[in-house]
Amino acid sequence: MQVDPGKLKIIHYPDPRLRQPARPIEEVTPVIRDVARRMLDLMVQADGVGLAAPQVGLPWRMFVCNSTGSPNGNMVLINPRLTQMVGSMDSEEGCLSIPNVRGIVRRAAEVTIAAGDLDGRPIQMTGRELAARIWQHECDHLDGRLIIDRFSEADKIRVRRALRQLESEYRPARAAARR
Ligand code: ZN
Prior knowledge:
The protein is of the alpha+beta class. The protein has six helices and seven strands. The chain has helices at about 30-45, 130-140, 145-150, 155-160, 160-170, 175-179; strands at about 50, 60-65, 75-85, 90-95, 105, 110-115, 120-130. The protein has a five-stranded antiparallel β-sheet with strand order 1-2-3-6-7. A hairpin with a 5-residue loop joins strand 6 and strand 7 (about 120-130). The structure holds zinc ion. Zinc ion binds next to helix 2.
């Protein structure tokens, strides 16, 4: 797959690439590092706290995030896995790929995540609240799952109009149409 990191953009629902389960990354190549840097830029520009590779149209198991609000908190996680999930907590979530849609999502309150970093070193972290929520949201993206799948029936009805609007605005990418 030829990738030009500078051309990557955040894709929106209902782009089918958001529903495609992502594949493990076998080796951290220079392209992967450039894509990670671009994803961090896109996340910061969009005022987001996390962005998964499928959200830029790439079926790769990686995401970037920052739960701290400080530039030092930028992180890249390669092949992340949630290894422990404790408790549960309801909180409102949005998604950079589903503009103007927010709803309550139930998540584990505390999770442990194992991943690799851009140097191929293993990372393991335990987080609560916002960090735990971001990791679960981004891991969902890697499995093709979106927040709207986890909304209550009432929230699903409430956001129906906004989703229809996004559906009417959606134009398939040319590369996707050619496939
Ligand atoms: Zn999202």
